[in-house]
Design brief:
4 copies of one chain form a homotetramer. By secondary structure, chain A is α/β, with parallel strands linked by helices. Chain A has 2 domains: 248 residues, Rossmann fold, CATH 3.40.50.1820; 83 residues, no CATH class. The first copy, chain A, has 10 helices and 10 strands. In chain A, strand 7, helix 5 and strand 8 form a beta-alpha-beta unit. Chains in contact: A-B, A-D, B-C, C-D.
Chain lengths: 348, 348, 348, 348
């Protein structure tokens, strides 16, 4: 392994610590690896060592290259300094993809607390976004400004291009209220972004990997399931990135978006509501929907009510068009033809 | 084990299946056990066997008595029939606490999909509430009426007396949108109710215990972490109820409420914002807060801004009074005196 | 689920308790299931309830039909009464394979302590052997006769037809010394039988499923890994039997024998030593071995010493012929021809 | 973290790679840490990188300092060169206990395959033994000399001073037969040494940490439980060493020896057979045993036969004297007096 501390900004004391693993034939091992960029917490007043090395080791064990960014803090934390530090770090890492044997489109950020805020900013506001984000007891809205008066809340910045997120926290966190995580999930949901989330029953703020050498792990202090986030986040990254094997990366099992609503045009994998909101598409679909309802069996007759979206909670509004039409007798060819027509219709 | 099918309502075909385990000296085992009441799903059109026996076995293995309620469905599901079925079942179970060797204040409901809706109704609207609720891909708001036109959404019914909840679902559930779970969590959070939650990256609706004999468990179909909800919910119930041991129940590790806001009076374990909203209490506290701010070190000076709650996101508003005052020089006696004074102040 | 207590022998008070799960289309579920036959412990003086129901629940949860045999104890335990009870039970179960929807060749015994002794007897001495055996802190040699003066030790009875075994115990068991498990494994190894084994660092005898309602589970009493045997044994049974899915059983991942030495004739999947011990086969193979050694690269030249079996620890003696010959240039056709010739050679 | 490659022997190309973690107040973390010394495998022809860094990361994650010893191989592997390399490494590490912040009596070796052979040699033959040994598919007897013609088998070297061992392997390992592990366990058992062991149903040799970046982990290749050895060995080390917490090491939960037979004198925690083998002690105990048998209840009368050790399998021979006498009416004072007397009796 090659560990080194690279100075990104001498004035603001910004550094990138590398944990680059051996690769290639000589090692009898994988040719390239995915990577994680770790953003420790510390209320923008410090970068906590407790959320640096231990996290790097966990991901190194799982086969990832790891990087720790110590971003601008204290007087230097004025926004967007920390975000600029991130941009500089991810750009540097991606530009070394070849020499460091990194899959440049398989790089996740992992942020804790204030570092979690920076990770959500990277996932929503950055030019050079990560491919996934792991967010530990992250500040997203409440208390952002108590940490960093100029920094933006990031929930409203979540968009259709936000990468998949893994969100974890303890419900009783008394430093960062749990709504920071819940409301961020809601925004991910509203934008069709893939995510996984674990909110554990109880435990303090700032537990990092929850090893006994870092955190008081007695059951009266912290719930026994909290340490699972480490293995679960690694498992989740495999679902999102694919598995790093001796034959290369396998195909991901979980797509980054739960439907095609994030695209700039329509497809049959957009949701019914998303498609019907575009008048041109609604006109195109109308006869198919009528046929679909007409063809419903007596048993499923009540389902036609499901299409009534007057109160915004239509049962089918969130279904993909593909799944919805499958209830009728649409052929593969018809579906393909429809998909082609929809792809001509752009979403502003 | 004693398994029996009790008829609760012949007309509506409502039954309670019992899985009552051996207890007592003769068994060389525990004297009493906690219990679970299982509410299978099925869109209020049926009670799915897939979410009945297999769930009972999982909890029986963990030492619980189990009950499966097959509530009113199809034409009989008109609200509040299913809720009445629940009331009848829980009342019956609690009235048999002695003969069946049940801890009557350690009974959790476990509901799936539409049964999850019924479980949230039990936790929020019932006369005879459960002591905890486990909610699997539960319908709480969206699609309630598509299943059962007269049934209420339950999110707005969450209150300070709602018991602790364990919420799980898959993010890609195409039958019950994930917002049903997220918004329910938000309501629990807003009411100070303890909860744990696991939203898994991907998988279909209705996976039950996710055993291969019930659900296609291939990785392309469902995320490998989904089956963890079973063990995790059992672990969580132990945190909430205590552990059932040969010497009786141990003390719970996780309280049912994260602060005392749920009480009808104030205490030092209420949140700052909750206490300050009562004018009488605000007056009482004013000098202490002033002293606290005055006593803050130079370093923490900025913190006084934290008390400014003009935008509703004050950093201290969610802190317990006890924790907040600990930053000053309040003595144990002073805290106790304050607590006594607060307990005289009632919250309507 | 259908639970019933069947009397197998009224005089000796032998019963079989059934936990037969629903099957078939109506259930929207699996058509048939594998099964376990549980043999509780109790020093042949009793059949412990602690090792009956709780074990049945664990396997029922995993999709298995379960049966508990309460065999002859106390004055009735004279050998071979308990073994006859087993024979009667397994015969009854297999004869009901159709009505009870059981895969009749996917039935495992699970025995604890003295019940573990009976399980090893079933696996080695019975007419009607099980398809796998799970052995918990089983008595196999030491103390057999202290429990049951007429009962045989079972280690010397292990043979090539013994089914796969899963062996677990605690190293500090003060009732049944750990050599009972170690020596049984050695016998399985010597007979080419597949097995898995977990010996945990510390803990008492008789922990059953290690649930807190059965066993003091505090860390000072019992090692935290002990409860893993339950899930691990279920995972192992899936490897041995295949997985019970909605489409039927999948193929097993782990064969019951690690090579073909258990057959009554030779194959290329027998070990080198096993084949060479038959003069007719040794003659047949001689030229191939010479060619193999001659063809070894300079680098691997030392390996020819590996063939020298004078001290019985030749490096290749335990290799399958197929794997060994793969080091040379043998073609698929030649291998197939050799296999056909070997299959003509019988092993007494 | 401080990673460095120290040359131990330039001529034989022996190196020690360090992974020394931050410690002390400045880190807001533990003051000292336990350590592991990793011995990669490679048939004494190489030191495999696959069993070096990945193992170090796993233990670094768990809070351990890690060291990788690349010992003498190929022409330099003549015994006792590799053992001398180990002695040099452990001596160096222990001599730096203060500067590197290591608990010098909490150092485990972890060896794989041929490195596992070296680890067993360290545990049995070295001057400067480790405090625990983790042995992965280790060569202990069969094939030792095929790897290293001068090296000794280590099973017969196991003695009462051998430190606790954690033994793991796959049952189907075709390179190192499973008897290497089974027979080593038997020797540990015979010498009263604490151990834990996991033999997994199937899988190839040399899987290291079983991460997908190192090993083909498809279920048809390797049993899904194999990767558990990593977490299980870490859990076991905590049982043996105690837990490394912010307040220092906790007390171990599992003693290094299962009884006091390993001492040079007798105690009441020696086994009955061990004590009775010393004539002086047998004379001392005789009246107590007579009283014990006389006092047995009618029900337990048969137990007196348990004391008959004519066939070496007496039921009580492996019981600690303390546990055995507890069946009688011995007082704490009497037990203490007996213990004092026994401690005067030396075992050669």
């Amino acid at each position: 392994m090659n560990t080194e501390v690279l100075t990104l900004n001498e004035e603001r004391n910004v550094t990138l610590t590398t944990y680059i693993q051996d690769c290639g034939e000589g090692f009898g091992c994988v040719a390239k690896r995915p990577a994680v960029l770790i953003l420790p917490g510390g209320a923008y007043q410090m970068c906590s060592d407790r959320e640096a090395d231990p996290v790097a080791f966990a991901y190194a064990k799982a086969g990832y290259h790891a990087f720790v960014l110590r971003y601008s803090v204290m007087d230097d934390c004025t926004w967007p300094n920390p975000l600029n530090d991130y941009e500089q770090a991810i750009t540097l890492i991606r530009s070394h993809a070849d020499t460091w044997h990194i899959y440049e489109d398989k790089i996740a950020v992992i942020g804790f607390s204030a570092g979690g805020h920076l990770a959500t900013a990277a996932a929503t506001l950055a030019q050079n976004r990560p491919n996934a984000a792991i967010l530990g007891y992250a500040v997203t809205s409440q208390h952002v400004q108590a940490c960093n008066p100029n920094a933006p809340e990031t929930i409203s910045a979540v968009d259709r291009k936000t990468p998949p997120c893994f969100v974890f926290a303890t419900r009783t966190d008394s430093m960062v209220p749990i709504n920071n995580s819940i409301d961020f999930m809601r925004a991910l949901s509203d934008n069709g972004v893939a995510f996984e989330s674990h909110i554990y029953a109880y435990g303090p703020h700032g537990f990092s990997t929850c090893e006994s050498s870092i955190q008081d792990t007695r059951p009266q202090t912290i719930c026994s399931r909290v340490p699972h986030w480490v293995e679960d986040s690694i498992g989740w990254l495999k679902d999102i990135f694919g598995e790093c094997t001796l034959e290369g990366m396998t195909d991901p099992l979980c797509p980054a978006h739960i439907n095609d609503n994030y695209l700039d045009y329509l497809t049959v994998d957009c949701t019914f509501a998303h498609v019907m909101a575009i008048p041109e598409a609604a006109t195109l679909l109308a006869p198919m929907i009528d046929a679909l309802i007409a063809g419903l069996s007596e048993q499923a007759k009540g389902m036609s009510a499901a299409f009534d979206d007057s109160n915004g909670t239509s049962m089918v509004s969130d279904m993909k068009l593909r799944d919805l039409l499958a209830y009728g007798k649409i052929s593969d060819d018809e579906l393909k033809a429809l998909d082609n027509q929809l792809r001509q219709i752009s979403v502003i």
